[in-house]
Design a protein that fits this description.
Elements lengths: L22 E5 L5 E5 L5 E2 L19 E4 L2 E4 L17 H4 L4 E2 L6 E2 L1 H41 L9 H37 L5 H49 L3 H87 L3 H12 L12
Antiparallel strand pairs: 1-2, 2-3, 4-5, 6-7
Helix pairs in contact: 2-3, 2-4, 2-5, 3-5, 4-5
């Protein structure tokens, strides 16, 4: 319904024709100009001319300004308002007005802006899960490659202390593979999975909230139209009464006196009607207001929860990653120790002991 609200034509400010004294021009959130008389707060869409006389089509509420059927205080009495949650930058304080749609010329409500943020948050979390999945795949593949390499029998015949160190080095690849495999499985259960278990039915819940708030706005639009209609009816009745009164001044007659009584009754009735319509509109706006506060605070809570949850699991990621390095290092320690013990002299002794073919040296022939 908001997209059809025609608040689009922007009057061109005529600089050659200045505003009459005490009138100021303001811009509505939809980018439409309106004018406020700073002495009595009278507010109007129509540019007042320097010619005397009150502007037509005035809002008639001196201290308020309806925009898309929501009634705001006129800018002249803004300082009276205080934030609901001062200094908290709460969602419930900053999304009351509608906003021009960046694409297209319609506008979206402040509430829709909040909902879009929520849906984007859900999408971001899903993408983070995807990213972690890729990270897991790299670890798994790396582990598989390490383990495959550790089983290749190259240089398995090396002997002695060097042979032992070499065997340990090959074994360390298998240990490392284990470490990376553990890292990948922990990433899956402790990071990826929590990211994927986003509140079920989230989108449905958001849609429900959207419809609820939009329905309340629709009701306000209807009731605002009723107020305008009742206002017009009252003004017509008043004009009629005025006309009859003028007629009576020209020519006294019982019939006209009767007509005046009737017109007065009708005018009073129109006034009552208007009050009833305003009351209904007020109730509707007040219900919308309450729902907006409750719901936006709920959205705010959900967003804090989301950010906190993601932060925690990313911390878990860095912890696991550090652990991997530590375990990974511990797989290297035995290799290092054995490398320290590599002793070519000892190796020679061992090898000679095992493979010697005879220590008795030859002597000269005796005849
Ligand atoms: C694993 O080895 C294959 C080739 O055997 C290679 O294409 C791939 O990049 C390796 N992956 C990692 C993570 O080292
Ligand atoms: C509508 O609301 C305004 C502002 O709260 C109040 O002054 C006025 O009396 C209300 N009108 C009716 C008819 O309820
Ligand atoms: C430990 O793992 C990382 C990759 O996770 C790798 O780059 C590194 O070479 C491994 N070894 C040691 C001793 O850190
Ligand atoms: C050296 O001795 C070891 C142990 O008896 C044996 O396994 C190996 O085959 C021998 N090497 C050669 C070259 O004979």
């Amino acid at each position: 319904f908001l997209r059809t609200a025609s608040l689009s034509q922007i009057p061109v400010e005529d600089l050659k024709d200045p505003l009459p004294p005490h009138w100021k021009c303001y811009m509505s959130p939809q980018g439409r100009r309106y004018y406020v008389n700073t002495t009595n707060n009278e507010t109007t869409w129509e540019r007042p001319s320097s010619a005397p006389g009150t502007p037509k089509n005035s809002f008639r509420h001196k201290n308020s300004l309806p925009i898309n059927c929501v009634t705001f205080p006129s800018p002249a009495c803004m300082p009276e308002q205080q934030l609901l949650k001062p200094s908290e930058w709460s969602y419930c304080d900053y999304f009351w007005a509608d906003k021009k749609d960046p694409q297209g010329n319609g506008c979206i409500t402040g509430f829709e802006v909040l909902l879009q943020k929520q849906l984007k948050g859900k999408q971001m979390q899903k993408e983070m899960a995807e990213f972690i999945r890729e990270r897991i795949k790299i670890e798994e593949e790396y582990a598989k490659n390490l383990s495959k390499l550790s089983q290749i029998p190259l240089a398995s015949q090396e002997e002695g202390t060097l042979g032992e160190a070499w065997a340990q080095l090959k074994k360390s690849l298998a240990d490392e593979a284990e470490v990376h495999l553990k890292f990948s499985s922990k990433l899956q259960s402790e990071v990826e999975k929590p990211f994927l278990t986003f509140r079920e039915n989230f989108k449905k819940d958001m849609k429900r909230l959207d419809h609820h708030i939009a329905d309340l706005r629709k009701q306000m639009v209807g009731r605002y139209a009723a107020v305008e209609k009742a206002r017009k009816a009252l003004s017509d009745r008043q004009k009629e009464l005025e006309l009859k009164t003028q007629q009576l001044e020209i020519k006294l007659s019982n019939k006209i006196e009767e007509d005046i009584k009737k017109a007065r009754r009708k005018s009073t009735q129109a006034g009552d009607d208007l009050m009833r319509c305003v009351d209904l509109y007020n109730q509707s706006q007040s219900k919308w207001f309450e729902e907006m506060v409750t719901t936006s605070l709920e959205l705010e809570r959900l967003e804090v929860e989301r950010v906190e949850m993601i932060r925690q699991h990313l911390c878990q990621y860095t912890t696991l990653r550090h652990e991997t390095d530590m375990f990974n290092q511990s797989t290297m320690e035995p290799v290092d120790q054995l490398l320290q013990c590599v002793d070519p002299t000892k190796d020679r002794e061992t090898w000679v002991r095992e493979n010697k073919t005879g220590e008795i040296r030859p002597v000269d022939i005796e005849i």
